[in-house]
Design goal:
The structure holds 2 protein chains of 2 kinds. Chain A is mainly alpha-helical. Chain A contains 4 helices and no strands. Chain A has a domain of about 55 residues. Chain A is elongated. Classes of the chains: A mainly alpha, B mainly alpha. Chains A and B meet through helix 1, helix 2, helix 3 and helix 4 of A and helix 1, helix 3 and helix 6 of B.
């Protein structure tokens, strides 16, 4: 096609790589996961609250990795990938969330009290 | 894309652009792979949804419950390994940017080794569970757990295989267009495994002991 082999390294997606971003993404992701571990191991809150906190930390880790590692932003190089990702997120969340909600309701409505826990 | 093509030398109209540079091969392939990756994530969505349904007490079928089998500290070591592997690959990509073959090979190699250690821990954890009688067939909960963890492990295994193939291709071909787009795709694939692992760690392991 149009571009020669010698230009491949000049491609914008190759040029996205940055050591600083890798290091920051690594440190931040690890810190967020360590924090999640601390919260759970030390039972810093009730189960429902702990789940909310850990969910928040997981979401933060995903955002950090999406920006610093996957380099998803609205630059010309990455905009379409970012848009695809943003459109995919509700699909992912709803697939899991609606399923969990459906069955939580089902369990509450159909199971014998002794079977619940 | 311009709709105004330049006329032929004799003045007749042409409908194509004679000096058009051609489409961006690398971007086409990386975007296509990204869309595939999102569909792969939907596969994990199905597995997560199944797991969230089946980790209810009744699905333990009188066997082990999440609380009994999740070892969150050991899983944190696995988290460390996945993230370190991704970071190594990332440094490999920085080396690619600078055209340094040795750097790329080191990045791929270290990422592959760390990935293999991760897989080793995965295998060790699951075989230990199976030895205690907590096999995949024991209960719906365990089936869902094994399927999710093994699926992620298989993704890691194929990624490692792909890294080894890429190391051979980098040595043999250097940084051709094909090698570069494959390295970019593998980068996306590998980073995605870390992203999925965040969800596995938080919503399977940590949630299991809350």
């Amino acid at each position: 096609m149009g571009h020669g082999n010698e230009n491949a390294l000049q491609h914008p997606e190759v040029q996205l790589a940055r050591s600083g971003h890798i290091v920051f993404g690594y440190a931040a992701s690890l810190a967020l996961m360590a924090l999640s571990l601390m919260v759970v191991v030390h039972h810093l809150a009730g189960p429902a609250t702990m789940l909310e906190i850990v969910s928040g930390l997981a979401f933060a880790a995903i955002v950090v990795q999406a920006y610093f590692w996957l380099r998803l932003d609205f630059s010309r190089t990455q905009a379409w990938s970012t848009v695809a990702f943003l459109l995919f997120i509700p699909l992912f969340v709803l697939t899991i969330g609606l399923t969990a909600w459906m069955f939580a309701g089902l369990y509450a409505r159909t199971m014998l009290p002794g079977m619940m826990h | 894309m311009s709709t105004q093509a330049t006329p032929a030398p004799d003045g007749t109209a042409r409908l194509w652009h004679p000096h058009h540079a051609g489409h961006d091969v690398i971007a086409t392939r990386t975007f296509g792979f990204w869309l595939y990756m999102l569909s792969d994530a939907m596969l994990f969505a199905g597995l997560f949804a199944t797991y969230l349904v089946l980790d209810h007490a009744v699905n333990a079928a009188g066997g082990p419950t999440p609380h009994e089998i999740m070892h969150v500290r050991a899983a944190f070591v696995q988290t460390l390994l996945v993230f370190s592997s991704v970071a190594a690959y990332g440094f490999g990509m920085v080396a690619l940017k600078n055209g340094r073959k040795v750097g790329v090979l080191l990045g791929l190699g270290i990422a592959a080794v760390l990935g293999l250690v991760f897989l080793g821990l995965d295998v060790r954890g699951l075989t230990a569970l199976a030895a205690e009688g907590a096999t995949a067939e024991r209960s719906g909960f365990l089936s869902a757990f094994y399927t999710l963890v093994v699926t992620h492990g298989l993704h890691m295994a194929f990624g490692i295989l792909w890294m080894m193939v890429m190391m051979v291709q980098v040595v043999r071909e250097g940084f051709t267009t094909n090698v570069v787009y494959r390295l970019l795709n593998l980068k996306v694939f590998w980073y995605f495994q870390a992203l999925v692992w965040v969800c596995v760690y938080c919503f399977v392991y940590l949630r299991g002991v809350m």
